Fold this sequence. Notes:
Helices cover about 35% and strands about 25% of the residues. It has twelve helices and 14 strands.
Amino acid sequence: MYAFTFEQPTALDDALRQVAAGGKPLAGGQTLLASMKLRLSAPEQLVDLGRCQELSGIGLQNGELVIGAMTRHAEVAVNPQVRDNYPALADLASRIGDRQVRAMGTLGGSVANNDPAACYPAAVLASGATIVTTQREIAADDFFLGLFATALEEGELIKAIRFPVPKQAAYEKLRQKASHFPLVGVFVARFDDGVRVAITGAGNGVFRHAGLEQALSQAFTAQSAAGVHIDDAELNSDLHGTAAYRANLIGVLAQRAVTKASS
């Protein structure tokens, strides 16, 4: 292993100064450390955010569920406030990766990394959540910019994410056996003003599906989702599945998610 320094600030201001000086922020490390082992990333300084208490915690504020960026997947999965107010989010967190990943991985790390097959971005986008950073607040619709790309600027860190609580919601995915990432995942969230549907794993990043949203806003039923044509023109094709296969999966998983949300 090459040489690097390892910082563990206990205050967010100290962490920001170290990041501004060139340190690489370390959240759960589930992506960064693997990249370092493969020599795909070689930071000279790591800034561990795990001791910054300002970045952790779960609570309700003005009817929204607020989750700190350094909150672990396993904590979200079992937290009573999440399970009582947004059970679909707790369910999603309980099925990310494996037990080791859930014990270390964080909400903020997953969202900031924006892996095209990650689960959390689908929940954030479908919820119409707000990403609270050290500099501003960013709407989910403006945050995800494509493959591993977000609206975060250099030195900007996610502090927390605010989730509006939907009337009904569910997440369904087909897990890729080797990586545990979803081959396709569909998150459906029904609010008073309509339905939001976010897809992960099928394209170059998480995206909303206008056709499913329109149909489900008119009738929140599996039959309504089944009637929507899913275009495969811009979907991924690889050794795990063709674009046509992923398009079919989107339709099937959307129907399952609606059925689950309505049960």
